[in-house]
Structures are given as structure tokens and as C-alpha cells.
Structure of Type I restriction endonuclease subunit M:
Amino acid sequence: MVVRPENRHERQPTLGEDTPDGRWRAYAREDLLQRDKASLDLFWLRDASMTDLDSLPAPEVLVEEILDNLRSALASFEAVSASDQ
């Protein structure tokens, strides 16, 4: 199954007693909070430069930066693919 945003809740754990090499399992919020130094505060993920909406670049600039990043990533994937052939 390919996990996409619309079907992520259908995902089944792959780690269990019968599959110790599995790589994924869900944790209950309560289980996470019982751990030492546990924090579900995701504030650190916020990009400080994006908090001041008045200083954001124009949408066209953001779009061009995103496109440049995507083009660069695609070129990297194509290089890897070419080296495998």
C-alpha cells in the first residue's frame, strides 16, 4: 500500500511480536508522554523567517524558488538513475 495523506489512517503497523524487523508502528499520545523528556511541542519546526508575514517574499518569488529546488532535485534523481543504468 502506498501511504498518501488521504489513506494514511489505513496504514497497518509492520513492527510486532511476529515481525520484529518491522520498521513502523503507531504510538498512543499517552505512551509518548510517559517517556522521559517527552514533548509534543512542535514549535521548533517553525521557520523563524516565516513568522513575520510582512517580510515574506512575493508569491512569485516563492514559486520560482520552489521550482528551482524541484528542478535541482529532479536533476539529481536523473543523475542517480543514469548512473544505475
